[in-house]
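Hi P.,

Sorry for the delay on this. The queue was packed all week, but I finally got your sequence through. Input first:
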Amino acid sequence: MTDPLLSELLDLALEAGRRAGALLRDGRPADLGVAATKSSPIDVVTEMDIRAEKLITGYLSEHRPADGFLGEEGASAEGSSGIRWVIDPLDGTVNYLYGLPTWSVSIAAERDGERVVGVVEAPMRRETFHAVLGRGAYGNGEALRCRPTAPLDQALVATGFNYVTEVRTHQAAVARQLIPRLRDIRRGGSAAIELCDVAAGRLDGYYERGLHPWDVAAGDLIAREAGALTGGRPGLPADGDLTVAATPGVFEPLQAILDELGAWHD
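Then the structure:
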């Protein structure tokens, strides 16, 4: 049976993502002003990033004032409805800053702590991904399925790197040892999009250390609803130590190698 609440949450997330994506796409100034810095000068938070989060939280609060929020740019509210929105208003900030197309708006809804709706809006790719728990994953309205299983040495795997030099150096060392065991590695710069690309069959796998809940909340659900497996270190859920998503045949061997190589620590 269709749960009307989940349908409502999906519709709201889709519209909020569309509006925020349009704001970011159409309002991107040529001289992007920096509102603040994150962990290093490389990782910037733009004024547009903050504006997008305010747009999303304002729209959602207007329709569901009792819901809670967790947002990358500081949105935080407990709420009283059992629903919490997990928001990354601009995933791929550096790509956006440089005018590269791989950036997205990521919005997920949790019900009593369980992710039930995920939307990733990628305006410059003209793509909208979404999933509802138990209903499958979709890209621009078409059902998504992850790729058929490939041997690990034929797998195309994406990853990401931290903006802190010391952390990034260790991540590069892990990638150097991993590359000979794979077809190749890609680095797109948006965790949400790379999880969706696993769902869409464009990647066999993806992993990264140091992600936050807002980076993966929507994309993780979309990947799983498309048939991919997700987790962290062997036997553990995805967390800040390690996030892994891959087709069923690639997931376990990739996870095991990453654990062996110490991808879960700096």
